[in-house]
């Protein structure tokens, strides 16, 4: 098993030859971190976690697109591969592009599912292969040669992985699909490359002490309103990726801007990305620690920023003052700092753009004039604020 899984007990390691063999059931483990729990147990349901990993291979890239994963539910008291029914466990509308070579020594979480209790006889993995660009490899040569990878139709209609497993209420069942890219890519006589999958399915049963996970939660907000206080942004898209495993979790913020990843977030470095209409994108690396809550409160800036413009004139005769230095500094209503400056042109005009929302202090300095300070200039989204400054000559 890959080293990142920690100390685990391998119940069965099976090489899949797409035959109808029967194996022992995978024993689930206790689920202490699942959503909608009562005392750590999901009422009436169990959890299935499916991971994907790869053995080392002599290619720079082996790219495939996974479209769907199905599970075969065993029939009551019946035997045989085709008894019972197939259930869609996970489906990607646009397909999930995976470079198998990137999964050496790490595991990608394909699905974390809350399922009704049931016994399953096998999985079925579907790949896209109708178009030439659906799969390709990059050879490990000096030319970085890219070659199409043919996906035979038999594999597009589902690769059967014979791994009986059981979903038990309040328990976790973990399966890992080990896709051997090196052995699965076959060079044909005409110099083309074809996929002939060689896949292992393994199971791991760590004890509760060996599950190194934490949680991530926080808020997404912006400065707005009369006092430029913090206002939560509902419906923002939040994704969490990375960590000791390769994984991607997605959620959206609630009406008050809060979000919560209370699943088993693997420890280590992860990246939090936030997207909301009308605001700049946010991306930051965070560290998840074992058994701890990582709190991330995010303040987004408006995508369309404000502008302060105006003119500087002589108070005595209203003539424009050229070369005056105009400086603005963010003074309040924000947790970040910002300052900018410019000089007036021949007509005494100035304009400072790309200003985040906030309250500013404007400072104007010119030779032989008394310095002028203007407080409490409030900037909100996508607006231009005009101001006229009259400087008093030094007597």
Quick take:
The chain is mainly β. It has 2 helices and 30 strands.
What would your notes on this structure say?
The protein is mainly beta and 395 residues long. The protein has three domains: 3-210, no CATH class; 213-299, Immunoglobulins (Immunoglobulin-like, Sandwich), CATH 2.60.40.10; 306-391, Immunoglobulin-like. It is 2% helix and 54% strand. It contains two helices and 30 strands. The strands form six sheets. Strands 4, 5, 7, 8, 9, 10, 11, 13 and 14 form a nine-stranded mixed β-sheet that branches. Strands 1, 2, 3, 6, 12 and 15 form a six-stranded mixed β-sheet that branches. Strands 16, 17, 20 and 23 form a four-stranded mixed β-sheet that branches. A hairpin with a 5-residue loop joins strand 18 (237-242) and strand 19. It starts with 9 loop residues before the first strand and ends with a strand. 32% of the residues are buried.
Give the radius of gyration: 30 Å
Q: For the residues shown, what is the average pLDDT?
A: 78
* Residue fraction in strands: over 45%
The profile of the biggest β sheet is:
9 strands, mixed
Indicate the overall shape.
elongated
Helix fraction by DSSP (H/I, runs of at least 4): under 10%
Cα end-to-end separation? 84 Å
Keywords for this entry:
395 residues, mainly beta, Immunoglobulin-like, 3 domains, nine-stranded mixed beta sheet, six-stranded mixed beta sheet, 2 helices, 2% helix, disordered N terminus
């Amino acid at each position: 098993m890959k080293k990142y899984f920690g100390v685990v007990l391998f119940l069965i390691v099976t090489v899949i030859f797409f035959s109808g063999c029967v194996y022992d059931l995978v024993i689930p483990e206790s689920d202490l971190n699942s959503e909608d729990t009562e005392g750590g147990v999901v009422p009436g349901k169990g959890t299935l976690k499916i991971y994907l990993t790869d053995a080392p291979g002599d290619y720079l890239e082996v790219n495939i697109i996974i479209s769907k994963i199905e599970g075969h539910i065993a029939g009551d008291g019946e035997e045989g591969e085709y008894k019972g029914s197939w259930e869609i466990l996970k489906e990607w509308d646009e397909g999930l592009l995976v470079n198998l070579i990137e999964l050496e020594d790490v595991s990608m979480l394909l699905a974390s599912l809350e399922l009704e209790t049931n016994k399953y006889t096998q999985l079925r993995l579907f790949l896209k292969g109708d178009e030439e660009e659906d799969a390709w490899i990059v050879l490990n040569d000096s030319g970085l040669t890219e070659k199409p990878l043919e996906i035979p139709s038999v594999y597009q209609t589902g690769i059967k992985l014979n791994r009986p497993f059981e979903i038990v209420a309040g328990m976790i069942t973990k399966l890992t699909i080990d896709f051997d890219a090196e052995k699965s890519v076959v060079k044909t006589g005409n110099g083309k490359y074809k996929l002939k999958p060689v896949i292992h399915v393994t199971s791991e049963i760590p004890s509760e002490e060996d599950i190194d996970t934490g949680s991530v939660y926080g808020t997404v907000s912006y400065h707005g309103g009369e006092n430029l206080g913090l206002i939560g942004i509902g419906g923002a898209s939040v994704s969490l990726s990375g960590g000791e495993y390769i994984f991607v979790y997605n959620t959206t913020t609630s009406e008050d801007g809060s979000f919560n990843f209370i699943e088993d977030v693997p420890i280590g470095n992860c990246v939090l990305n936030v997207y909301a209409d009308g605001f700049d994108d946010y991306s930051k690396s965070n560290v998840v620690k074992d058994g701890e809550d990582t709190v991330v409160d995010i303040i987004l800036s408006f995508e369309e920023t404000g502008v302060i413009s105006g003119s500087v004139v002589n108070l005595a005769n209203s003539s424009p003052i050229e070369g005056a230095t105009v400086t603005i500094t963010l003074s309040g209503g924000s947790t970040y700092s910002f300052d900018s400056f410019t000089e007036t042109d021949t007509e005494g005009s100035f304009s400072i753009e790309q200003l985040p929302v906030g309250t500013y202090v404007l400072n104007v300095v010119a030779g032989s004039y008394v310095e002028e300070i203007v407080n409490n200039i409030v900037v909100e989204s996508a607006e231009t604020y005009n101001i006229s400054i009259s400087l008093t000559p030094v007597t």
